[in-house]
Automatic annotation (TrEMBL):
Pfam families to which the protein is assigned, alphabetical: p450 (PF00067)
Positions with a binding annotation for heme: 604
Name the UniProt record assigns to this protein: Cytochrome P450
InterPro entries: Cyt_P450, Cyt_P450_CS, Cyt_P450_E_grp-I, Cyt_P450_sf
Comp. bias intervals (Low complexity): 401-421
UniProt region (Disordered), positions on chain: 328-378, 390-421
């Protein structure tokens, strides 16, 4: 007996020793360290790598420190994922233009959620990327941008009117001598959130021809001021509606979509995201197991992310099915920026929840329902069931979940009201281009899953980066009075006190564009991008980078390089004015020194769209208002995730620049 126990203990001891040795070898990453030994970089801890510095400082600051110490090319360990970082403008341009594929970092998502990420334009590779990019390109032609302008202006006008109303209310409260909490809160606005609602509204009206009513969602007197997730937002809207608020079905759709976009970015980051992501960085070999555990036992951040991804997926399906089942209309007849989403009042029977086509079966044709041999009424029934019957529970398995909850028809049957329906989108919008794309060799159309991936990409990209860039611009203007005065002078000269900008006005607002460009230099929302060459080694600045090694392009480091940018930490929009003596210092001397949208053919395809939208928004906002920062926000705290963003929002007080016109009665009384 004693011998048996001794043998078992001895065996366990040997197993533990072997396990400890394996873990030690894994943690040291001897093979990866040896392959990259010729490239300098900061010391990396076993397992953790450089994660402590990355989480404490954020990658932009940490990369800048490494640039100073190790030069323009250095290695960094994201846990046990080793990468090369490039932080010099010339080298960034060379790598960005020569290496086309992005590095593929597997998240904890699985099923359709993972496929939606892989099939989107951002991660697409090789011939598939070329096909998808060619489908996107017409959406950003000069003619398309010209057509989008009226909708961009309408969204900017709506936001400005909202903020000016808040400013007038604050003035009225101050005039009454108000004090206490109500007076303190009067006029106080998180401009970052407001700008996010506006950019999402722009995406809806320009890309899909529908009004998401994203800005209207916050109008319900305090009911949805701050919520933790999309379900709470929907509940708040419903409660407000019961008390006479707006609470229309389309309002709920917009509110859920806004919250979903915000939460996707927030909870996808290492800082705010799930602890399971950090474990997968330490043990990438166990990522499938970690992913399975995360889905079975999600922590709060992962649960929030799953809900947000499910709601976003549902929105994509609603848009696609709405386009496919709508009657064909002539171009230009679709709803404009001021037209709400039309609710469809169809009923349907319960059926199993279908999945998006993944290419293993013939995709649905990119045409109207009649082309499928179905009558319009039955097509609408099928679309309503399809769009609302499955709701992405985070597993990508099509089981009901998420804030859209039960199908629209089921809700309508229970309440006796019409269902919450998919928004109708217009023929000839972004969806029309994607659905009509064909592979040149085979003539095959994109599958439903591939189409949904493009819809998701446009929604997320159009929402986040432009909103962040505009928020940073507002912060920089508020902290630089001289810049603000010159900006206001240009806008007043070109537009006057109230006329919205037109296409002819945009070239006459060079300083407005320079302000946005300089804000993107100091605070680039896309603070880094990446590349990966899997066909062979790559030469980068005198170093040979082995094949299949991720290369990070640190845009933030290049934008703050004092060897390139004189007074690099100062906000000087004149750098971007060709008529300024400061322009030759950098912009005409160092190609691609300013690259907030990336490099080469993989740079942001919608960058002209973003600049036009930002220029219109800044012009209209500062035509009517200026913004005073709430105390305690200088210097601005930022959060680093997929994008660079204000950490706790950007709180301002809008101040009206022009007095309200006097009423006829008041004018008559003053005259007498």
């Amino acid at each position: 007996m004693f011998e048996a126990i001794t043998a078992v203990v001895f065996g366990l001891g040997k197993a533990l020793c072997v396990l400890a040795l394996v873990l030690l070898l894994l943690g040291l990453d001897i093979g990866k360290r040896w392959r990259l030994r010729h490239i300098p970089g900061p010391p990396a801890l076993p397992f953790l790598g450089n994660l402590p510095q990355l989480l404490t400082l954020g990658s932009p600051t940490f990369f800048r420190q490494c640039r100073k110490k190790y030069g323009p090319v250095f290695r960094v360990a994201f846990g046990r994922n080793w990468s090369i970082v490039v932080a010099e403008p010339d080298l960034l341009r060379q790598v960005g233009t020569r290496v086309l594929n992005h590095a593929l970092f597997r998240s904890l998502m699985r099923g359709e959620f993972q496929q939606l990420d892989d099939l989107g334009l951002l991660i697409a590779r090789d011939d598939y990327w070329r096909l998808v990019r060619s489908a996107w390109q017409p959406a950003f032609s000069a003619a398309s941008l010209s057509g989008y302008l009226p909708r961009m202006v309408a969204c900017a006008v709506q936001l400005t009117d909202r903020l000016e109303t808040r400013a007038r209310e604050a003035e009225a409260e101050a005039a009454k001598g108000g004090s206490g909490k109500a007076a303190t809160a009067a006029g106080r606005v998180n401009i970052h959130r407001e700008l996010g609602s506006m950019t999402l509204q722009v995406v809806g009206s320009t890309a899909y021809g529908v009004d998401f009513r994203a800005m209207d969602c916050d109008d319900i007197a305090g009911a949805v001021a701050e919520v933790d997730d999309a379900a709470a937002a929907a509940t708040a809207v419903a409660a407000a509606a019961a008390e006479g608020g707006s609470g229309r079905p389309d309002d709920k759709f917009g509110r859920v979509l806004v919250e979903a976009c915000r939460n996707v970015f927030r909870y996808s980051s290492l800082v705010y995201g799930t602890k399971y992501s950090r474990v997968s960085l330490l043990l990438p070999e166990l990522r499938p197991l970690v992913s399975a555990v995360a889905h079975v036992l999600p922590d709060r951040p992962f649960a929030q992310l799953l809900r947000a991804r499910g709601d976003l997926r549902n929105a994509c399906v609603c848009l696609i099915q709405g386009w496919k089942t709508r009657p064909v209309q002539p171009l230009g007849s679709h709803p404009g920026a001021d037209t709400p989403i039309a609710a469809t009042t169809t009923t349907t029977t319960t059926q199993s929840s279908p999945r998006l086509d993944d290419g293993n079966k013939p995709p649905l044709p990119a045409s109207s329902a009649a082309a499928n041999g179905r009558d319009g009424q039955n097509a609408a029934v099928e679309a309503a069931t399809f769009a609302n019957g499955f709701n992405g529970n985070g597993n990508g398995d099509g089981k009901p979940s998420g804030s859209f909850g039960k199908g629209a028809a089921a809700e309508g049957a229970e309440s006796g009201a019409g269902p919450e329906a998919a928004p109708r989108v217009a023929v000839g919008s972004f969806l029309g281009l994607i659905l009509s794309a064909r592979d040149k060799a085979s003539g095959a159309a994109l599958t439903d899953l591939q189409v949904a991936a493009q819809v998701q990409t446009f929604i997320l990209a159009g929402y986040e980066t432009t909103a962040n860039g505009l928020a940073f611009a507002v912060y920089c203007i508020a902290t630089n009075p001289k810049v603000e005065r010159r900006l206001l002078a240009e806008i007043d000269e070109v537009l006057g006190p109230d006329r919205p900008p037109t296409e002819a006005d945009l070239p006459r607002l060079p300083y407005t564009e320079a302000v946005f460009n300089e804000a993107l230099r100091l605070y680039p929302p896309a603070h880094a991008t990446n590349r990966l060459e899997d066909k062979g080694p790559v030469q980068v600045g005198g170093y040979t980078v082995p094949a299949n090694t991720a290369i990070f392009l640190s845009i933030y480091s290049a934008h703050h390089n004092p060897d390139v940018w004189p007074r690099a930490e100062e906000f000087i929009p004149e750098r971007f004015l060709p008529t300024s003596p400061l322009y030759p210092e950098v912009c005409s001397r160092v190609p691609n020194a300013h690259a907030p949208f990336g490099y080469g053919s993989r740079m942001c395809i919608g960058w002209k769209f973003a600049v036009q939208e930002a220029k219109v928004a800044l012009a209209r906002l500062y035509q009517r208002l200026v913004f005073e920062l709430e105390p305690g926000q200088v210097p601005l705290r930022t959060s680093v995730g997929i994008t660079l963003a204000p950490k706790d929002g950007l709180w301002v007080r809008p101040v009206a620049r022009h007095p309200l016109p006097a009423s006829p009665a008041a004018a008559s009384a003053a005259h007498t």
